[in-house]
Amino acid sequence: MIVFREIILLLFALSALLIAVQCKKELSLSERVQQLSDAGTKKPVLRFNGDKFRQYVKGTPRNYSTIVMFTALAPSRQCGICRHAHDEFQLVANSWRYSQGYSNRLFFALVDFDEGPDVFQALRLNSAPVFMHFPAKGKPKKVDTLDIQRVGFAAENIARWVAERTDIQIRVFRPPNYSGLLALIVLLALVVGLLYLRKNNLDFLYNKTIWALGALAFTFAMTSGQMWNHIRGPPFLQKTQQGNIAYIHGSSQAQFIVETYIVALLNAAVVLGMILMTEAASKRDDVRKRRIYAIIGLGLVAFFFSLSLSIFRSKAHGYPYSFLLK
Amino acid sequence: MCVCVCVCVFDDRAWYPLGRIIGGTIYPGLMVTSAAIYHILNWLHISIDVRNVCVFLAPLFSSFTTIVTYHLAKELKSPGAGLVAAVMIAIVPGYISRSVAGSYDNEGIAIFCMLLTYYMWIKAVKTGTLFWSTMAALAYFYMVSSWGGYVFLINIIPLHVLTLMITGRFSHRVYVAYSSLYVIGTILSMQISFVGFQPVSTSEHMGAFGVFGLCQIHAFVDYVRSHLNKNQFDTLFRAVISTIAAAGVLTLAVLAALGKIAPWTGRFYSLLDPSYAKNNIPIIASVSEHQPTAWSSFYFDLQMLTFMFPVGLYFCFSNLTDENIFIILYGVLSIYFAGVMVRLMLVLAPVMCILSGIAVSSLLSTYMKQIDDVKVEKKKQRFEGNYFMRSEIATLFVCVMSVFLVMYTLHCTWVTSEAYSSPSIVLSARGHDGSRIIFDDFREAYYWLRHNTPEDAKVMSWWDYGYQITAMANRTILVDNNTWNNTHISRVGQAMASSEDKAYQIMRELDVDYVLVIFGGLTGYSSDDINKFLWMVRIGGSTDKGTHIKEHDYYTPAGEFRVDKEGSPTLLNCLMYKMCYYRFGQVYTEGGKPPGYDRVRNVEIGNKDFELDVLEEAYTTEHWIVRIYKVKDLPNRGA
Q: What is the annotated signal peptide range for this record (chain A) (predicted)?
């Protein structure tokens, strides 16, 4: 008898447990929304594993949309682009969280491959990152996946896509970049400090040589095309398909950064040669030194001029002249 | 003065329907000069047609430039330097490119005026007389009337005065020179209607005004200093300076905040902040002359001068005088601007020639003296320390320098003949058998327009061809090369980039009768409208009415600009595409390729057999380079 009662009690307990578990699986809509918004206020981007994904993103009924980023952030996966996309996604989620129109209609979530591989399989995703929009009603369509190839994953573009899919406008707020300002302040502090230390002896400002060197350095920088580099942002150099390294760009419409440094050095060498020659002729120094100056100067001038001419020849096709070097 | 009459002239055949006030939107110097020369020659009964005067004006003025460069370099260093500088500027490609016969543009006379002003200014600084200062002001007035680049002058001359003040070289000569130049020059410059009141209201001219004030203060301080003893002077000086400085800064801040002082305009601001134009004003960024300069462009236009210039700087620094400081400033500033914008290579060329002339002549004169030391035994005392092989080294150096100069000449001649000698309205190419094929399509199309369209027909095309249509076809146009109204150009861009129906609305609104496009797909001419199309999209989308035009709609999903089957549907159905490729799908262009093969983009076009709804083809030239379409009228009601 007693055993029978125990068994009945046990059965009741088990069934109660089962029912409880059952209920837990089917949380009501309001509870889900409540849990999501609580979690969302603390962390704007929610991290889901497979179960949570199915419960919150796929579970019905829903009156909210979810934007989910499928990514692979573990270092072993070696997905550098996932990291950048994660930063941009975080920016959008933060902007949404602190925006005036923040509501329970939209949530941002993340599923990492290592935490939810079943989700990746179910959705047949084989690349990362992927941004998908799961609407409140119905299944996601083709346009509910952000076309990263075409649009990229910059925060502004993600926000624009979200607005297109959900009609919720998010103004992306990028925290201001203080690095430029900081660099400027440091520079100013250095200059002021320098002037203060030398305040008794400001003569160095009147020293012609320093200004002359400054002007010459500026000229070399400009004639070698540094402004072009600053505006167009070319690569440092180029590795061709055969594995060789190309230092000089083949056409005269473009240049590499290393190429501009080479040209600046060549110009500087020629000018140095000419200056040495002038010094040799006019100074009152030791005879032998002046002779050495003159010979070195002449050699520098002739050699580096021909070198720059041959580099120019390789770029401007059809140029017929050369000097010493071909 | 005859300039005042120009205000009343209104051109209603350009920028339809806005029209253009000629007097108020251009610099009259070039036109007044040509008219003056024409009238003088005809009065002397040398009858030269005004067209020939205009064609040969630029080479004439570049000869004058050579003479002025000689005088300027002579003032700075010596007659030898002047001669070398004059020879260099006579052949430098950087200047020749903008002053070929037939290029009737402001730069042709502007460089002459600029160097003349500089010469007068240097004379004024050296002598300190009112005569030379007034001559400088008159030359400055001539410069203001001829080119918008006078802003460079009105900033570099005050900068020079400021540098002289800082280095303690300020003297009564500089005071007289600058004060008279500023007052007379500014009053004269305001006589040009295009300039108007800008010299007292825009930031570009405030520097000159500030330095003028500073000049007066400095001179006054010197005067007071000479009348007081040291202690009194020091106290007074310190008190007054602090008050004035505070008051001055406060007034400037208030004026700027109130908006009385207009900020830097777009074109000049983009020189200070090079990325400004690219991000904010696409029409400035689109002009190919406004692109930054790669090092090979420097070398191409200036060759040897690129490294003789720093040597010249070194010589100037070795013996600093008031004039040398000016030329150093000019050189360093213009090399910065030339690096930012290819067009400003023109401003750099003269100073490169002058400084290189100084360098070459100094080096040569030093070393020529050392060559024959056989005869001048006594004068050798100056160069004590005769060293072995001195004359041999000197001879070698002079030979090397001569070789450099010869190579410079050869280079300049080659560059000028290859790159700057071809006309841009008649093109030529070599056929397969080496024979020369001439493409005279532009003139053919313009003369067709002239003879086959009504007098008051309005033609829509991209702004590059505006002046040509006005001059050769004599028809009213919507936009031209002056590009003074960005919104109107943007409207044309919207029409070109939209679908036929939307474009038809815009064309009816603008009263367009004919549309003209340039197409290079049949011949391989690569500066056609399809290659410029993205700029039309960017400019079209940059104003309010064009927000529906987004650049990324015209790219493929992979982000490429393609006209074949993979191309974006928006691109394949826009007006420009349809106009360029109408009936092109049936044409065989190259052996072994399908019909409709575009020889510039090297693909077979995607949208081939289509009909035009709102346009009908009026004329296509022999090689399909220019295509003209007539805009159809509204359909009859009930038809």
A: 1-23
pLDDT (tens digit per residue) in A45-62 = 888 888 888 888 787 788
pTM of the model: 0.73
Beta-sheet pairing, A238-239 with A106-112: unpaired
Q: Does residue A65 contact residue A134 with C-beta atoms inside 8 Å? A: yes
CA terminus-to-terminus distance, chain A: 112
Which residues contact residue A157 at a Cβ distance below 8 angstroms, ignoring those fewer than 6 apart?
Answer: A146, A151
Q: Which 3 state secondary structure label does DSSP give B436?
A: strand
The C-alpha atoms of residue B387 and residue A3 are separated, in whole angstroms, by 126
Instruction: Return the structure tokens found at B225.
Output: 């200093």
Give whole-number Cα distances, B86 to A102, B138, B366, in Å: 72, 24, 20
Best of A160, A220, A226, A277 to mutate (most B CBs within 10 Å, chain B): A277
**Sheet strand arrangement including A65-71:** A45-48, A106-112, A65-71, A130-134
- Six token digits for residue B70: 């000689």
Minimal Cα–Cα distance from B275 to chain A, Å? Answer: 7
Closest CA of chain B from A216, distance in Å: 6
Asked if B545 is an interface residue toward chain A (Cβ–Cβ < 8 A), one would say no
What are the residues whose beta carbons fall under 8 Å from the beta carbon of B455, sequence distance 6 or more?
none
Contact B32, B145 (CB under 8 A): yes
ipTM: 0.77
The structural domains of chain A, ordered by start, are 22-166 (3.40.30.10), 202-315 (no CATH)
Residues comprising chain A, all counted: 326
Q: What is the pLDDT of residues B479-528, one digit of tens each?
A: 888 777 888 888 999 999 988 888 998 998 888 999 999 998 888 888 88
